[in-house]
Structure to design on (535 residues):
């Protein structure tokens, strides 16, 4: 019977962890999945979001409220980042992927160093009344520090997806990478549509940051461990499939939890890539992506 | 008089010059054909008018309701908001969204947003086929249907002038007739000002009041309907660059 307990707990933990991964991947799903900009700085922006939330919680503000307060400043940060990216590359005739990767790699280094200078390199965590308590359901033990952040993902993803699929500015965002000229012909400025999308993507980083720092303590370089995983989620879901990324993230979360429970926790970082390789071998367009 | 004037326009790509001192004008409610073989600069001229290609010399001026605007320094979306609309070469629809979303996208720019409902209703009334297929993904329609969608889309920005680049290219002859009928019908219905490029010119000149022949990047000749029937042989000779 003991093994059933472990199995159930591993699956539930996996679902919750996967949901947190989905929050982390959401912004990349917009910048890379929809705009095709390989923003490897996104996990570092999430860590910056976590430190923003950490700072506000020091003044007694709840981490989720802190994340909501962070939406506007992070949106503006994203707008500025895109304006810089576009001035450096796009206006000079198309950004090549390697150059973009280098820019965002450099950007994430700069953010990490700024965070280290500002906050020191030791682990930081948030202390809220419900963190440390657990919900007990029969054999299941669900810690609130995992349950509450996990609930953020479906809400944020649903909000972003409704915006993208039901509004005209959402349609413009989905259209811009496919046919930039169609936007100009429509009397819309493609550059400002992309800037807006990048702003939304960066705004989601502060919500993911709140989720991340509630799950466990983090340090300025914590984003690096997430890069592979979030790219795996976006690519495996199928570029541009935002709801699909939640499903994929949960599959990866469950697989990681099972691997760490039954095999060895040190193997779990490789799980996302194993699933990515297997998934792409079977369905190259991603599990939820349309064939191109 | 409301019109679009192009004066001594030159343009090209890097060191390659494509247009040399092109001058033409388009008056309100007129339909003018721009004839020329492939590679003589028709699309470059249109891309210049819409701001996708920068002019190296010359002016493009929209004179409308007493206001004169030089288009050569403006961005494409600003030119569209001034009332120039294009049905471009290759159509440039957004492939992965529905017919209705393609139309709404064009109707959502700040200049026309508050009239979106009326504009959409007008498009569906003019092209009932699109109403029938409004949920269909654009890329899954046939070439002719996509061309009709591109024409309908150009109406969504409430244009003063529509520029149509080779509406018949890549379409079966029977479909070409449908597309040209749609353009003619549009003219009869709303007296729209249209500048249309074509290389299969027979049908184009039948519905146009004037025609320019563009050859080797400059205007070779201008034909007017008042000269009587436009002589096909003469046009063909001009298109081939003979004097």
């Amino acid at each position: 019977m003991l093994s059933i307990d472990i199995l159930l707990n591993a699956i539930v933990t996996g679902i919750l962890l996967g949901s947190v991964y989905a929050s982390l991947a959401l912004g990349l799903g917009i910048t890379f999945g929809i705009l095709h900009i390989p923003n490897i700085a996104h996990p570092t922006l999430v860590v910056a979001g976590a430190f923003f939330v950490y700072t506000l919680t020091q003044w007694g503000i709840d981490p989720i409220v802190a994340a909501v307060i962070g939406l506007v400043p992070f949106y503006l940060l994203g707008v500025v980042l895109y304006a810089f990216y576009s001035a450096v590359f796009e206006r000079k005739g198309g950004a090549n992927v390697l150059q973009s990767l280098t820019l965002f790699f450099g950007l994430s280094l700069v953010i990490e160093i700024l965070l280290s200078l500002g906050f020191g390199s030791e682990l930081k965590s948030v202390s809220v009344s419900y963190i440390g308590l657990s919900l007990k359901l029969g054999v299941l033990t669900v810690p609130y520090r995992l349950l509450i952040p996990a609930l953020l993902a479906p809400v944020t993803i649903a909000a972003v997806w409704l915006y993208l699929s039901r509004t005209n500015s959402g349609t413009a965002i989905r259209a811009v990478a496919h046919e930039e000229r169609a936007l100009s012909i429509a009397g819309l400025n493609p550059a400002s549509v992309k800037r807006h999308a990048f702003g939304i993507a960066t705004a989601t980083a502060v919500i993911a940051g709140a989720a991340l720092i509630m799950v466990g303590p983090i340090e300025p370089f914590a984003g690096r461990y997430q890069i592979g995983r979030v790219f795996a989620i976006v690519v495996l879901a199928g570029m541009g499939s935002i709801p699909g990324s939640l499903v994929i993230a949960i599959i990866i979360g469950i697989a990681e939890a099972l691997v760490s429970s039954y095999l060895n926790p040190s193997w779990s970082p490789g799980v996302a890539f194993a699933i990515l390789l297997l998934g792409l071998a079977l369905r190259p367009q991603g599990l939820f992506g349309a064939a191109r | 008089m409301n019109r679009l004037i192009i004066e001594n326009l030159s343009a090209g790509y890097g060191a390659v010059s494509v247009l040399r001192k092109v001058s033409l004008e388009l008056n309100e409610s007129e339909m003018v054909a721009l004839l020329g073989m492939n590679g003589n600069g028709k699309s470059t001229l249109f891309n210049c008018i819409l701001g996708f290609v920068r002019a190296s010399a010359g002016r493009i001026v929209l004179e409308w309701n007493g206001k004169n605007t030089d288009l050569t320094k403006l961005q494409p979306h600003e030119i569209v908001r001034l009332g120039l609309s294009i049905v471009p070469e290759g159509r440039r629809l957004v492939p992965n969204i529905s017919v209705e979303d393609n139309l709404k996208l064009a109707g959502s720019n700040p200049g026309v947003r508050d009239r979106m409902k009326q504009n959409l209703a007008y498009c569906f009334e003019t092209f009932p086929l699109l109403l029938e297929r409004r949920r269909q993904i654009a890329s899954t329609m046939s070439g002719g249907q996509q061309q009709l969608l591109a024409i309908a889309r150009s109406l969504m920005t409430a244009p003063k002038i529509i520029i149509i680049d080779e509406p018949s290219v890549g379409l079966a002859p029977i479909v070409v007739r449908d597309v040209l009928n749609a353009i003619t019908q549009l003219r009869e219905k709303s007296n729209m000002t249209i500048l249309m490029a074509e290389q299969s010119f027979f049908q184009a000149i039948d519905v146009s009041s004037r025609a320019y022949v563009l050859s080797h990047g400059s205007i070779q000749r201008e034909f007017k309907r008042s000269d009587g029937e436009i002589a096909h042989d003469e046009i063909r000779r001009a298109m081939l660059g003979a004097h």
Remarks:
- Residues 38 and 97 of chain A are 7 Å apart (CA to CA).
- Chain A has a mean pLDDT of 89.
